[in-house]
Design a protein that fits this description.
α2 runs antiparallel to α5. The chain contains five helices and no strands. It is 79% helix and 0% strand. It is flat and about 50 Å long.
Amino acid sequence: MTVYDSAHALASVIRGSEEALEVRRLREIAEADDTNRALLGEYRRLQAQLQIAAMGGKQVDQEEMQRFSQIASLLYMNSDVQAYLMAEMRLQRLMADVFKIISDAGGINMDMLNA
């Protein structure tokens, strides 16, 4: 089995994992509402912009940061959206753990991500 075959097998296992199935199920529920779907889209857009700015050493726009916080507060007040976002965080944690295992196997030091 090649590394690529193993990667595809791992992808299949992750796709069928309890965490991934729960994210898909809860996403459907959360995004069934048009307002939730729009807010989640804006939340993700702002989140990406703020992360890119921070990684690039740029000054974070305070207006965008405030808007992001306001949208996050609105989203977390909705139990369906909150459950979805929490499930997504659990899946991201699982993916980070898998990435660390793979990085360690390749001899790549990823400790700087934990700083």
